Amino acid sequence: MISLQTFLIISAALFCLGLFIVLTRKNAVAILMGIELILNAASIALVSFSRFITPYGTGGIGGVVAPGAPATGGQTFVIFVIIIAVCEAAVALAIILNIYQNFRTVDTEQTKELKG
Amino acid sequence: MENYLWLIPFLPACGAVILLIIGRFLPKMLVSIIACGTIFTSFILAVITFIQLLGLPADERIIHQTAYTWLQAGAFKASVAFLVDPLSIIMLLVVTGVGFLIHVYSIGYMADDKRYSRYFGFLNLFVFAMLLLVSGDNLLMMFIGWEGVGLCSYLLIGFWFEKTANAIAGMKAFIVNRIGDFGFVLGVMLLFWSLGQVSGQWTVTFTELREHAHYLTPAIATAVGILLFIGACGKSAQIPLYIWLPDAMAGPTPVSALIHAATMVTAGVYMIARMNFVYVLSPTAMMVVAIVGVGTALFAGTIGLFQKDIKKVLAYSTISQLGYMFLGVGVGAFAAGIFHLMTHAFFKALLFMGSGSVIHGTGGEQDIEKMGGLRKYMPVTFWTFLVGTLAIAGIPGLSGFFSKDEILWKAFSSSHGHWALWLVGLIAAGCTSFYMFRLLFKTFFGKNYSELVHHTPEQESSGTPVCCDDKDSAHNSHGHNSHGAHKGPAHESPWIMTVPLIILAVLSIIGGYVGIPAIIGGANHIEHFMEPVFSASAESAPHESSTPEHHSPVEFILMVVSVLVALAGISAAYYLYMVKPHIPKQLAAKFAFIYKLVFNKYYVDEIYQKVFVNNLLRLNNLLAYPIDLGIIDRIVNAAGLGTVGVSNGSGWTDAKFVDGAVNGTATTVLTGGKAARVPQTGKLKHYLTWAVAGVVVVIAGFWWLLR
C-alpha cells in the first residue's frame, strides 16, 4: 500500500543522503550533486503532499483551480524548484570553474583564500 | 468669506522669499512682475476687505481672523491672528496702495542696478513686515512687524553698501531704532504684567486689553504710555531719536519714499492710535506726546529751512510732519492724526519720488544749489511736485490743508490741547510752506540747469562724526551708470516713473475730501469711520476725539489764520529766492551764528557723539585695559594654572589605575577570543555539520518528549 508516509520516508532518506554527501565530500562538484539530491527530496515531498492532501481544487483562494479538477500546486512548486536548481547549478559551476582556474583544484579544503 | 485676510501680509512674504532665494536667476521682467504683483494683489484684497467693512453696521466694523495659535503658556495665549477694523484698514490701504506705486516706480528707478532682485526682495519683505504690524491683532504680532521694518530699513538704507557712508547710515537707523524698541518692549511688558496683576487677564490682544484697560492706575498708564512713546520716537523719528532719518537718505530714493512716507515712520503714530485706551487714562503721557510732537515739528521745520540737499529737506519735512501727527494723537485727536498720516503718505511719497525723478533726470545730482530751471525739462515731474508742495504747505483745496488744519484746531480746542501747542504748530506750518517752496523754486525755476552742470561739485564735508553724512551719497553708487557722466540737459523720467507720480498727485489733491471739517460744510467721513476704534477713549474722556459738532467761529478764524501763514511762507520764499535771490546770502552773513547753528542741524549729531558715543567708547576703553587686561586676565590665568595642577594629578591617576583597568579588560577579551577562535574554522562544512548535529539533537529531544 503506497501512502503518503512511503513517499515521505523516501523523501527523508534522499534528503539525508544528500546532506551526508554535502557534509563529507571535498570535491565541489560532488557537493553540488548532494545539493541536487536534497532539492529532489524536497520536490518529492511537495508533490506527495499535493497529491495526498489536496488532490482536487476547491475553487478557493483566487479560484485558480475549479472545484473537482485535479490540483496542480505541488507540480507547480516542483517546476520552480527545478528551475532554481538549474540556475543555482549554472552559477555554482561558473564559480567552480573560476576557482579551478585560480587554484588548479576543486578541493574545498584547499581553497582557503578569497584572493581573486 | 474672511479667510483671505492672512493672504494680505502673506503674499509679499512669498514674493520676498522667492526673490531673495532664486531672484538672481530670474529675468528682470519676472522679478518686477513678482514684486509688484504680490503687492498689487494684497492691495486688491485690502480694497475688498474695505468694501466688506463698509457693508457692516458702524459699530460692528471688525473682522477678526485667527490663523493658528502661536504660543500658549497657562492662561496666556497669543495667536497669529489678524484684526481689521477702521483704523487698520486705512493703514492697510495706504501701505499696500502707496507701496504698490513705489514698487512700480522702482522698476524705472532701479532699472540699471546690479542687485535688482535683491532690492525688490527687500522691498517686499519690508511691506510684509509693515502689513504684519498694522494687521496683527495682538502686541506680539505688532512687535514682530515692528522689528521687521527695523531690519528692512537697515537693509534698504544700506542697500548701496559699496560706500561705507551708506552702510553706516543703515546701521545708524538700526541702532537708533533699537534704542526706541527697548522702550517699546518695556512698555509692552509693563502693560502685560500690570494688567495681569490687577485684573487677572494675561493677554496681549488689543480687544481684550481695551476691555480691561480701566483696571490700570493712572501712574502705570503714564509709565506704559511714555515707554511706548519712546518706541514710537525711534520708529517715527521724533526728538530725541530723529537723527537716523536724515542719514537714511543714503538709500535709494524709492526706499525713502516707502520708509519715510508710507510705512515705517507712520508705525509709531499707528501704534499710539491703536493703544489709545492706555493714553486716555493718562493726561500726562498725552501731554508728553503732544509736546514732543509739536517740538519736533518746529525743530525739524527750522532745520529744513537751510538744507542744501533735496532729499535732506524732504527728510526734515517728514520729521516735522510726523511731529504734527503726534501733536494730533497727543491732544486726543487720534482720527485727525491718522487722517494726516494718510494724506502725508500721499504727498510725501509723491515729493520723494519727484525728487528721485529729479535726481534720475539730472544724472545723480542732489544739491539744489546746482539745480534750477528744471521745469522745462521735466514737466510731469514739475507739475506733480508742485501739487505735492501745495498739499504739504496747506493750501486750501488740497489734502494737506484739511488734515493739518484738523490737527491744529484740535490742538487748540480739545481738552488736552492748549493755545501754545497751536501757536508752535502754526509757526512750524509757516516754516513748512517756506522751505518747501524754497525747494521748488530752487529746483524748478531760476537759472538754467544746463548752465550749471559744468561746475565741479564742491565737496563740502558737513563733518558729522556719528555718520559721515555724505551729501551725495547716491552719486556714484547710484544705479545710473549710463547717466554717470551725464552732462547734457536734464531729461524727463520714463513713464513707469511718471505714472505713479501722477496717480499720487491726484490722491494728494482728492485725499483730503474724506475729511472735510463740518465748519465748512463737510461731513468728515474719515473721523466718523474711525470713531468706533476710539469710542472707548471717548467714553472715558467725554470731550475729546469725537468732539460734539459745535460750530464755533473760532475754528473758522484759525483756519483763515493758518492759510494766511502758509501764504506768508510761500511769499517769503518767492521774494527771497525768485525776486531777490542775493538776499539769502546777505542774511546768512548777517546772522552768521544762527545760520551756522541751524545749517549744522543744531549740532545734535555732534552732541550725541560727544555725550553718548564718546563716553561709551571711554567706558569701553576703561573696561578693556585696566579692568579686562589687569584684573580679568589675571583671574583667567590663575584659573588656567590651577587647571594645569589638577590635570597633572589626574594624569598620574590615569596612568596608574585607569590604564591598568583598561589593559586588564583587553587581556580578558584576548583570552576569550583565543578560545572562541577554535570552532570558527571558516569552513562551511563544519558549520553545516554543527547545524545538522543541532537539528538531530532537537529532533531527538522532541521524539523523547512525545514518545
What does this structure look like?
- The complex is a heterodimer of chains A (116) and B (707).
- Chain A is elongated.
- Chain A is mainly α and 116 residues long.
- Chain A has 3 helices and no strands.
- Chain A has helices at 4-24, 28-53, 73-103.
- The longest helix of chain A is centred in the last third of the chain and has 31 residues, at 73-103.
- In chain A, helix 1 (4-24) packs antiparallel against helix 2 (28-53).
- Chain B is mostly helical.
- Helix content of chain B is 70%, strand content 3%.
- Chain B has helices at residues 7-22, 28-55, 86-109, 116-135, 139-157, 164-199, 206-212, 218-236, 244-247, 253-262, 267-274, 276-279, 283-304, 310-330, 334-361, 379-393, 399-413, 419-444, 449-452, 495-510, 525-540, 553-579, 583-590, 592-599, 604-677, 684-705; strands at residues 63-73, 76-84.
- In chain B, strands 1-2 form a two-stranded antiparallel ribbon.
- In chain B, a hairpin with a 2-residue loop joins strand 1 (63-73) and strand 2.
- Chain B is elongated, with a radius of gyration of 33 Å.
- Residues 454-487 and 538-549 of chain B have low confidence and may be disordered.
- Chain A binds chain B through residues 19, 22-23, 108-109, 112, and chain B through 682-685, 688-689, 692.
Question: How widely separated are the two ends of chain B?
Answer: 81 Å
**Mean pLDDT across every amino acid position of chain B:** 81
Helix coverage percent of chain B:
over 70%
Largest interface, with counts of residues having CB < 8 Å to the other chain, equals: A-B, 6 and 7 residues
Helix proportion of chain A:
55-70%
Oligomer classification:
heterodimer
Structural class by helix and strand composition of chain B: mainly alpha
Distance between the termini of chain A: 56 Å
How do the SSEs of chain A run, as a string of H and E? HHH
Q: Classify the beta-strand content of chain B into a percent band.
A: under 5%
